[in-house]
Specification:
3 helices; 4 strands; 4-stranded antiparallel β-sheet
Length: 98
């Protein structure tokens, strides 16, 4: 198993706009559930701490293997979600680990 975690800071001029954008990212990634071979767990969270150094959204996923994670990166459904999310992010951080 390999774990894939991604965190984003999202665009928005007001807290309400940032919240809407975070919900868009959350909904888009949650739509992948059951559509990606080898993706065994998917969880998306929106920050509730409000601290200035927190990321706005986190994606936690588990894959059967490194190969299934690589296949996810180019899967048409994942590409579709990346297009939906588009330029709504201003920063992205990623960690993959076993």
């Amino acid at each position: 198993m390999i774990k894939h975690i991604v965190m984003w800071d999202v665009r928005g001029d007001t807290p309400e706009q940032k919240k809407e954008t975070a919900q868009l990212v959350k909904s888009a990634f949650e739509s992948l559930t059951g559509k990606i071979p080898g993706l065994t767990k998917l969880e998306v969270g929106v920050d509730v701490s409000g601290v200035d150094y927190a990321c706005d959204v986190v994606l936690y996923t588990e894959f059967e293997s490194h190969e299934s994670l690589e296949a996810y990166a180019v899967h048409p459904e994942h590409i579709r979600v990346k297009q939906i999310v588009g330029d709504s992010r201003i920063a992205r951080h990623q960690v993959d680990y076993i």
